[in-house]
Amino acid sequence: MAQVHTVLGPIAPEDLGLTLIHEHVMVDFIGADETGPHRWDRDVVAPTMQPYLDALVAQGVMSLVECTPNYLGRDSVLLQRVSRATGLHIVTNTGLYKEPHLPAWAFELSPAELAERWIAEWEQGIDETGVRPGFIKIAVNPGPLLPIQQTIVRAAAITHLATGLSVVCHTAHAAAAHESLDLVEEEGMDPRHYVVAHADQIGPDQIAPESISNLDAVDLEPAWEAHVALLRRGAWLEYDSIGWNPYEWHERLLLAMLERGYEDQLLLSQDAGWYHVGEPGGGTVQPMTKLLDEFVPRLRAAGVTEALVEKLLVDNPRAVLSVD
Ligand SMILES: [Zn+2]
Hints:
Blueprint: E1 4-6, E2 9-11, E3 19-27, H1 42-59, E4 63-66, H2 76-86, E5 89-91, E6 93-94, H3 111-124, E7 135-139, H4 147-163, E8 167-170, H5 174-186, E9 194-197, H6 221-232, E10 236-239, H7 247-259, E11 266-268, E12 273-276, H8 290-301, H9 306-321
Parallel strand pairs: 3-4, 3-12, 4-5, 6-7, 7-8, 8-9, 9-10, 10-11
Antiparallel strand pairs: 1-2
Helix pairs in contact: 1-2, 3-4, 4-5
The structure holds zinc ion (ZN).
């Protein structure tokens, strides 16, 4: 029987509902050597984030996938507390990010040894909470992949094969995405369980989409081809910076891929929110409401059907998070 593993325990995939697949409740960018629960006060973080999460519930959002990995501010105790207070299903992760957010011990391990630690989190739970991860979160550098990031990608594939959990990889460049897919395939993993997060950063000739002021003046075909080349390999593409770049970029990108028939491999989110550990009051929190308030209405106006919106925000996240 398929299940989704939330911080409060397993739920039926049908109960996920409207899901934001890539957001953050809290992030600590200080680095692996200094981060830890001593850096934040849950009694401050939880109430600071509560109104931002309540706003999602008011929009009809039922589930939030928290993409903060270990050593970057992952806190399963905090997430359990926030989930109880808001009623949102929250999913956390196992895995590791990239430098300077990697502990020294990670550099000493082989892919199999690293995977062993992540599989242990799946089997025994994270920290003292016993919370089980609902996916594997990793990251890669722009490419060519550094040896440590190659190890982490391979470890993710090994962990996937042992657990069934999907891999979500912070990837902002096409070359890094292809190299990562080569590595997971070498380990025997089907790219259909691999999510290229931040794929919307793969722009025309790798120019940052946010720097393009006039999309009409740019030949977008090379960008579309770069996205199609990844989709053809079977991977998910996650367009998760909605609200950070001009909506026009995301609208054109998404419509171009829908037109080509890839609706079964696309995910939408905002990579927003978060209590910034170390900043007074948690710094400036980016609301997570823009996707539904501002972007989805643009899609409807462009002719995207309700059924397709539901596919992108309900069915596809459910497919990524369901584990047998
Ligand atoms: Zn993120």
